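Q: Hi! First time doing this. I have a protein sequence and I read that you can turn it into a structure. Is that right? Here it is:
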Amino acid sequence: MARHTAKLWRSSTIMGYGLQATDGDIGSVSDILFDDQDWAMRWVVVDTGNWLPGRKVLLPTSVLRHIDAGDGSLAIDVTRKQVEESPGVGDDEPVSRQMETDMYSYYGWSPYWYPGSAAMMPGYVPAMGGMATLPLTGASVPPGSAATTRAGGQPAGGDQPRGDPHLRSVQEVTGYYIHATDDDVGHVEEFLIDASDWTIRYVVVDTKNWWPGKHVLVAPKWIQEVDWGAQQVRLDITRQQVKTSPEYDPSASADRAYEERLHGHYGRMPYWT
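A: Yes, that's right. Below is the predicted 3D structure, encoded as structure tokens:
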């Protein structure tokens, strides 16, 4: 069995971290955009502060290097000049596939949706037919598109989305209600991110309205469907299974021993095998 020992980072920790280019500071992380088909991080949204006022910048995960918890920073493999001259994004401007293409072209990286791309995740199936129309300030679904997706990112109904609605904002999804197969269990508190490949490994569930003071983890693969319009996540596990699962302590690291207990409790194949 392969041993995967990369540290899992809380999304709330990464948000607000400073971004260090090869030659200086460029701002801080204001949001994270992920693909709801494989729950992989695709973009870091940069708040450039007073350096580039009135403008946000997108950085692909391809340029991310390492996280330094000591000084609360994230190192990136680009220069300040590269960031300054990169295609800009307005606060309320939607992120289209053309915009993503322009950004990847600018940095000279293969887009994650290209077969064989270094930025692609194993098992990823590229969305077809159109442009994402998701504003950075929220992950609303374009009018007329399917609002609910099954596990794996497929629309719940027979209609195909008019755009590419798979790019989601961590800030927007935080707070979504979570339902087990038989009852509510809580809401999305945050996410645990694997910095070795920038994948969301777990959703942190706050159960305070049902089970006060407790937090549990669920993996994206245990999600049956997400209703993005209603802001609800539906799991394929029962409320009792959630209640008896190993409790997650946000102040401690989710180490491999904890992960093994968690996957064993649900009888699920670990992602690191």
